[in-house]
Automatic annotation (TrEMBL), chains A, B:
Pathway: Cofactor biosynthesis; NAD(+) biosynthesis; quinolinate from L-kynurenine: step 1/3. Catalyzes the hydroxylation of L-kynurenine (L-Kyn) to form 3-hydroxy-L-kynurenine (L-3OHKyn). Required for synthesis of quinolinic acid. The keyword Nucleotide-binding does not apply. SUPFAM superfamilies: FAD/NAD(P)-binding domain. Pfam families: FAD_binding_3. Belongs to the aromatic-ring hydroxylase family. KMO subfamily. Transmembrane segments: none annotated. Its cofactor is FAD. Keywords: FAD, Flavoprotein, Monooxygenase, NADP, Oxidoreductase, Pyridine nucleotide biosynthesis. The keyword Cell membrane does not apply. Residues 7-355 form the FAD-binding domain. The gene is kmo. It catalyses: L-kynurenine + NADPH + O2 + H(+) = 3-hydroxy-L-kynurenine + NADP(+) + H2O. This is Kynurenine 3-monooxygenase.
């Protein structure tokens, strides 16, 4: 019943490749353009944070039948491992028994996704930059360099999956009344490596996301299949403890020995990596509309780039594709309606996960080192176990459910208001397991309204 | 003591011309570029809202000795004249005795400012678009069209006074970590005209800003020297009462007769104007940083475009220039320091007036038609008159004082919180002049904290 369309996807990253597989499964002709060379032919590293695949990501892969294939590349992480100087390693489970997030190298996953998309019949055109796009015609103009003779090709529709600095969005931005914002954090990041032991085993506990929370800055480490860990140092660009200050090998060495004494030995190439790898910026990008007529749509980071502190960037992008697929099931060839409902449905959720991700830096870098915060988590978890119908912790709602992000944000605000009151109770440290506390939370739940904001 | 510099100003609008006068007074060589023809040689009309000059604007003109000259072009407006169907015309004073804002036609003022800048020795280069700018070198590349042979010229520094869609800012935007947002209202606007009577007098009360508040939309009219009024219709682009719906002459005529019966006869060219004049969009633009090294700085709308509902766009831009001048007095040739302090000092205030302007649409279009709101204003004004040291109404603080906008926003929020409580008092309609109410406000003032946000 559905007509086969000619569709261009700009960007061969994770979201673009997944979209190509979905579209091929629906019987469309799909060309994926990328300005970079085929990632399968090059060395990929130096400015990535390992991915943390969670439920939303897996559901999008399952629906198109590739979850099992991808799971082979992933390492289960069921807890945070929190490293505080002078204290024993502290393990904080992410969810209930059996719930976990999964560490995957971005490069490894991207290669696999392109391979799977190609197997599904997608045509990839690498090293071909989209210089311009006619939105009304869905015609794209490509070429290796700007001065090259350019090629033009008209499609039935075009998807912009070309990331935070999307060329497709750039073209849409020139319309009047296009809302757009880009907001950079004062914190940047740098990739470092903990290599495997000689026997290929991991130097740190394998099934954990390791965190060294230090307030304004933090180090994290996520496991890889080859026994190594990809580490990311998050730190302000300027100020007291900052990338700007660490401008000599001595200073870097001393900084790591002082702040990360338990791990500095495990990063043997610290100094060369620190000065070779770029210091990258972190940006939140919001825009609207995401679509143009029935011709053009933005997906993933091109529509909603977020900071990485909730591990939801890829998951949110994959969920875009799954939602598009559901709408295509309902509205078949009515692409105008599909696009309108897609942007209206996804935008409030994209805004919500942007906000949650922004807030989570504080939680990871500061609060995981705070005993009050850890007690708060214990009280919440205890209550949630007893009343799973009444309380799903915010992290679980974002990570282990497919309920809308906007709802998670609103529930999280409500729970925070309630827990603020609970934490004011005198001697809460001693009394937190008392029956009264449970009753008090139940009473507060009755009294505290839920506010879902649809901006 | 101060060295004479070669300075380029991009944009010959109100703020660019004023800056040129200030810089000439300090002994610098000043070239002002504009892509448009000299406004003095062309007919100017069709998409402007008359300006409302208030204290901040006048102070900036006085400091450079041109306030008297400009005052000749202005008409004093000491009140709002509120037109509600079936009710008598209601006059709401803007401030205390003697306080007023001043209506000036944008075109008339701009011509005068260019004339004054030229007289001060500024060189104007019209019909010369700045296509590119080298930020490190303060070199600008100009020409009539993009394909023309371009001219390049190096300056000591460059100011971007080129408005909301600034080319200079566009270049700064390409740097990493440049924060930027553009946010459009769903409301647009269209200019209309009430011509003068045959004897040159005004058809409506001359010394008022006339408002026809209708909730989602409103009409305003500001007086001109020639006896005419410049009217602006603000209305949603789409929806029930919207520009989209008014697509035939009949519909426009009926719409005006229905909603603005007391003024429709005074707009004899309603239909031709409605279909000839553009429907313009309203945008808030925020960005940071505003400067680049000691070479480039943004001023006025290029740094902070706001919606017009507080009448502060030009006033805020003029205040930028006055602040720059103060910093030049203090730091003389240290342009790096001048620029750092300028952007750090102005940014929180630009954000505050953006927020206040956004909120004021609701006040003008809806609340001025609301009896509860008018009572609230009466209570506030009565208290302010008795306790001028304790209560300056928000509108006065923005319009008739030079206290920072950020402080006005914070004071306004505090006053609103207090007045919300007062308006909850039973029978407040009867009791508002009682001694108790005054005492209650005094008590609430003690209890309500002031929160100045510096983002």
């Amino acid at each position: 019943m559905q007509e086969s369309k000619n569709i261009a996807v700009v960007g061969s990253g994770l979201v673009g490749s997944l979209l190509a597989i979905y579209l091929r499964n629906r019987g469309h002709e799909v060309d994926v353009y990328d300005r970079r060379p085929d990632i399968r032919t090059i060395e990929f590293s130096g400015r990535s944070i390992n991915l943390a695949m969670s439920l939303r990501g897996w559901l999008a892969l399952e629906e198109v039948g590739i979850a099992d294939e991808v799971k082979k590349l992933a390492i289960r992480m069921d807890k945070r491992a929190i490293h505080i100087p002078g204290k024993p390693l502290y393990f904080q489970p992410y969810g209930k028994e059996g719930e976990a997030i999964y560490s995957i190298s971005r490069g490894v996953l991207n290669k696999k996704m392109i391979e799977l998309a190609e197997k599904a019949g997608t045509r990839f055109i690498f090293e071909s930059k989209v210089w311009d796009i006619n939105l009304d015609e869905a015609t794209i103009h490509t070429g290796k360099t700007e001065n090259d003779a350019r090629e033009s090709r008209k499609y039935d529709c075009v998807f912009g999956a070309d990331g935070a600095f999307s060329r497709v969005r750039h073209k849409m931005q020139r319309q009047s009344r296009f809302n757009y914002s880009q907001e950079f954090l004062k914190t940047g990041y740098k990739e470092l490596t903990i290599p495997a032991n000689r026997d290929g085993t991991h130097k740190l506990e394998k099934h954990s996301l390791h965190i060294w929370p230090r307030g304004e800055f933090m180090l994290i480490a996520l496991p890889n299949l080859d026994g190594s860990f990809t580490c990311t140092l998050f730190m302000p660009f300027e100020g007291k403890n900052s990338f700007e200050m660490l401008d000599t090998e001595d200073k870097v060495q001393q900084f790591f020995e002082h702040h990360f004494p338990d791990v500095v030995e495990d990063i043997p190439s610290l100094l060369p990596e620190f000065f070779r790898n770029p210091t990258s910026a972190l940006v939140t990008i919001r825009c609207f509309p995401w679509t143009y007529s029935d011709k053009v749509a933005l997906v993933g980071d091109a529509a909603h780039a977020i900071v990485p502190f909730y591990g939801q960037g890829m998951n949110a992008g994959f969920e875009d594709i799954r939602m598009l697929n559901h709408l295509m099931n309902i509205h078949e060839d009515d692409w105008g309606t599909i696009f309108r409902q897609y942007e209206a449905g996804r935008k409030p959720n994209a805004d919500a996960i942007a906000e949650l991700s922004f807030r989570n830096f504080m939680e990871m870098s500061t609060k995981t080192a705070d005993t009050g915060f850890l007690l708060r988590k214990k009280i919440e978890n205890r209550f949630a176990e007893k009343h799973p119908d009444k309380w799903q912790p915010l992290y679980s709602r974002v990570t282990f459910s497919e309920r809308p992000y906007a709802e998670a944000l609103a529930e999280g605000d409500r729970q925070r208001a309630i827990m603020d009151r609970i934490m004011e109770i005198e001697d809460i440290e001693e009394r937190w397991e008392d029956e009264e506390i449970e009753q008090e939370i139940l009473a507060l739940l009755e009294d505290t309204p839920l506010k879902v904001v649809n901006r």
